[in-house]
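Reference record:
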Amino acid sequence: MSKVYTYMVLAVGLTFLFKFAGLPFTGIENALSWMGLSTEATGISLGTFFLAVAVLFIVGTGTGIAISFITKSPSETYIIAPIALGIFTVFASVVSSIISYTKAFGFIYYIAWLLLAPLLVAFGIAIIQFWRGYD
C-alpha cells in the first residue's frame, strides 16, 4: 500500500476518533453533519450521505483532472489526489484545533505538537510524492 493511502486512512481514523471522543473542532462538524453522521445517541443516519459522496467525486474529479493535466500525472490521480488533498485540509484543521485546545493543559500541549505536527508534515510530503509519481 502506498504512503498516501496509509496517511489518508490514518487521518480519517484519527479525525473520527478525536471527534467521537468529544474534543472540539472547527472543521469537521459541518462535514459530518452534511454526511449524516452525528455523535448523539440517535446514531448514524443516511440523510445526505449519498449526495455528499456523489458531490465529492464530481468535484474531486474536476479538480483532479486540472491538477493531473498540469502535472502530467497518470489517470488514477484524477480521483485520488483531490480526495487526499481534501482529507489533508480537514486533518490540518483538526490538528490546529487540537493544538489550540491543549494550550491550557501544560505539557500535553507539547506532546500534541510532537505527535500531530510531524504526522501532518509527512502527510503533506506523501501527497507531493504521489503527485510527482514517486509514491
Residues 114 and 127 are 21 Å apart (CA to CA). DSSP finds five helices and no strands in the chain. Residues 3-132 form one domain.
